[in-house]
Amino acid sequence: MTALRRCVLLAAFAGIAFTVVYLRSEQTRAAARALAIESQRVELRRELWRLQAGVARLKAPGRIRELVGRFDANLVPPGSDETQRRCGTGLKPVPHVAYNHPYE
Prior knowledge:
It is built from three helices and no strands. With about 100 residues, the chain is mainly alpha-helical. The chain has one domain.
């Protein structure tokens, strides 16, 4: 084997070795980034659940009654006798009419 062939083979092996080392480091970096993104996703999911639970607590009928009472809004449900007495109109509620699509 000539010296030129040896140099070419040595350069090729060195290039392959450097490429393998570079690809391994990129693989490790990508795995660390994927792990960080996954942990961030878990934290965001936990925050979403916490916020959804808070919304559910605020939408609970007991909580709404408590807030209405705190503001002393003196509200009554629509269609009740108290509503008709307060409004004094004597009008009956309009029945719900189904929407008829014009193209059907």
